[in-house]
């Protein structure tokens, strides 16, 4: 079945006519718009800047990085004309299949597209495209706030064309689809994630009918590629308060489809009066906490996944209550499976997230068992260059609402940090390199590469970490000679 969006209407309302609302000439002071305007007049085309540029200008969200231009006619020809008028004659990338072209100018990406109407097939989000009017093009937009357009021709330069009251929705901080939300989301299910992403980034509210339509159409997300899904998840994760997005993903049922490992953490079980905290909502608090201190996407991912091993390891014991033994180890293994399924990178970024998930309880364990030099040395050794990120994660993991306990935990981590600084200055174990190399061991005992070399190096490393010898060559060499003798080796 093919549905034409040109014939779709919003509920209880005819498709609104394009109307001039207000003049926004001040939005178009950049020289690029004058060039586009001149090119449009020469080609006798109507042209408009539409979507994110207009929205973000009205919201005062800073300098644009991307500009979308709609031409009633050939967007490709307009792009070529504009490129020819610019001093540096930028290269025009042409995408004939979609009738679009893109060029880079003034540190911005400018995309040109011919106005079009779209029809959709049930098993694909890729539309069948026909040439159309500006109204057709605005009808196909995902949200009212992204359907706002500014005229670029002499006759309407700077005029705001707002057929769906997008300006009103911007002022009311509402995400709403221009047409029937069930059809909008079913046609292109990625728009469900975009709605949640915009609500999170802009701190807007998704209009009731639109939010309910996401829940009704949630299973349509299965036709979207994993790469597209994770791109939206990244943008939600990098928002000021990611929990808003993940709460909406959960409320609409999308999260259960995309990341069931997270939703499995929800709920509080009680047996014999003993309860555990809801690890799902705790996790979202941790992500918000860490987002106040870092914009590192992968550190935020580590915060999101730090407890995913708790669902499969949860057990109740009459004597000690609820336990999650080994959840860090199980969670680290789950990270790989989740990254693979979502087409996230299976490289150093994945290994970094795995490492932080695996070590996420280590600093807490040190506090609980008193802060010994040996434990701190091992923590620094195992975490290496990621020790600061690990501590940031652990501090974000404190979500208790009890002021005394909150202060106690943070004071304990201050103690760990202080001890780390003291130990590192003295013992230099971060990115540890053995004071005695394998080559020196072979030369000293006149032996070839062998198992004994590994034993000696491990003995030296353990002695340094335990504080039995300083991290110095002289002490390490003496231990090397002693251990070599025990292994039956004879020094030269």
From TrEMBL:
Protein name, entry field: tRNA nucleotidyltransferase (CCA-adding enzyme)
tRNA nucleotidyltransferase/poly(A) polymerase RNA and SrmB- binding domain location: 203-264
InterPro entries, A to Z: HD/PDEase_dom (IPR003607), HD_domain (IPR006674), HDIG_dom (IPR006675), NT_sf (IPR043519), PolA_pol_head_dom (IPR002646), PolyA_RNA-bd (IPR032828), tRNA_CCA-adding_enzyme (IPR050124)
Keywords: Magnesium, Metal-binding, Nucleotide-binding, Nucleotidyltransferase, RNA-binding, Transferase, tRNA processing
Cofactor(s) the protein requires to work: Mg(2+)
Stretches assigned to the HD domain: 282-364
Family in the record: Belongs to the tRNA nucleotidyltransferase/poly(A) polymerase family.
Origin species: Salegentibacter flavus
Single Gene Ontology MF annotation: metal ion binding
Domain Poly A polymerase head: 48-176
Higher taxonomy: Bacteria, Pseudomonadati, Bacteroidota, Flavobacteriia, Flavobacteriales
Superkingdom, natural source: Bacteria
Listed GO biological process terms: tRNA processing
């Amino acid at each position: 079945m093919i549905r034409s969006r040109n014939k779709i209407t919003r509920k209880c309302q005819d498709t609104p006519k394009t109307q001039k609302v207000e003049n926004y000439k001040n939005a178009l002071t950049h020289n690029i718009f004058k060039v586009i305007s001149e090119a449009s007049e020469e080609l006798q085309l109507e042209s408009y800047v539409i979507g994110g540029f207009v929205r973000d200008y009205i919201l005062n969200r800073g300098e644009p990085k991307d500009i979308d231009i709609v031409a009633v006619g050939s967007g490709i020809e307009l792009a070529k004309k504009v490129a020819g008028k610019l001093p540096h004659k930028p290269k025009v990338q042409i995408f004939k299949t979609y009738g679009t072209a893109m060029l880079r100018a003034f540190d911005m990406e400018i995309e040109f597209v011919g106005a079009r109407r779209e029809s959709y097939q049930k098993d694909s989000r890729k539309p069948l495209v026909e040439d159309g009017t500006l109204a057709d093009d605005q009808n196909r937009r995902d949200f009212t706030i992204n359907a706002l357009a500014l005229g670029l021709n002499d006759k309407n330069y700077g005029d705001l064309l707002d057929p769906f009251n997008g300006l009103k929705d911007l002022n009311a901080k509402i995400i709403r689809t221009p047409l029937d939300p069930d059809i909008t989301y079913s046609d292109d299910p990625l728009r469900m994630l975009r709605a949640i992403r915009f609500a999170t980034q802009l701190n807007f509210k998704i209009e009731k009918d639109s939010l309910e339509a996401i829940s009704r159409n949630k299973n349509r997300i299965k036709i979207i590629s994993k790469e597209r899904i994770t791109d939206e998840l990244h943008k939600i994760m990098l928002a000021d308060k990611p929990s808003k997005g993940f709460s909406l993903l959960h409320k609409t049922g999308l999260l259960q489809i995309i990341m069931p490992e997270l939703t499995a953490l929800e709920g509080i079980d009680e047996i014999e009066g003993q309860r555990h905290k809801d690890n799902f909502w705790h996790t979202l608090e941790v992500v918000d906490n860490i987002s106040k201190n870092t914009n590192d996407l992968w550190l935020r991912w580590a915060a999101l996944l730090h407890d995913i091993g708790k669902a499969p390891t949860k057990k109740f014991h009459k004597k000690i209550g609820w336990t999650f033994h080994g959840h860090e180890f199980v969670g680290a293994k789950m990270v790989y499976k989740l990254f693979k399924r979502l087409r996230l990178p299976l490289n150093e970024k994945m290994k970094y997230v795995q490492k932080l998930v695996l070590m996420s309880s280590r600093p807490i364990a040190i506090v609980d068992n008193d802060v010994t030099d040996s434990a701190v040395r091992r923590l620094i050794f195992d975490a290496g260059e990621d020790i600061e990120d690990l501590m940031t994660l652990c501090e974000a993991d404190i979500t208790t609402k009890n002021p005394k306990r909150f202060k106690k935990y943070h004071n304990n981590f201050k103690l760990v940090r202080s001890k780390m600084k003291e130990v590192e200055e003295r013992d230099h174990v971060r990115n540890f390199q053995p004071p005695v190399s394998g080559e020196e061991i072979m030369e000293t005992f006149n032996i070839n590469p062998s198992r004994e070399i590994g034993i000696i190096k491990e003995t030296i490393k353990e002695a340094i970490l335990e504080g039995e010898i300083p991290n110095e060559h002289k002490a390490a060499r003496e231990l090397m000679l002693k251990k070599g003798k025990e292994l039956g080796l004879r020094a030269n």
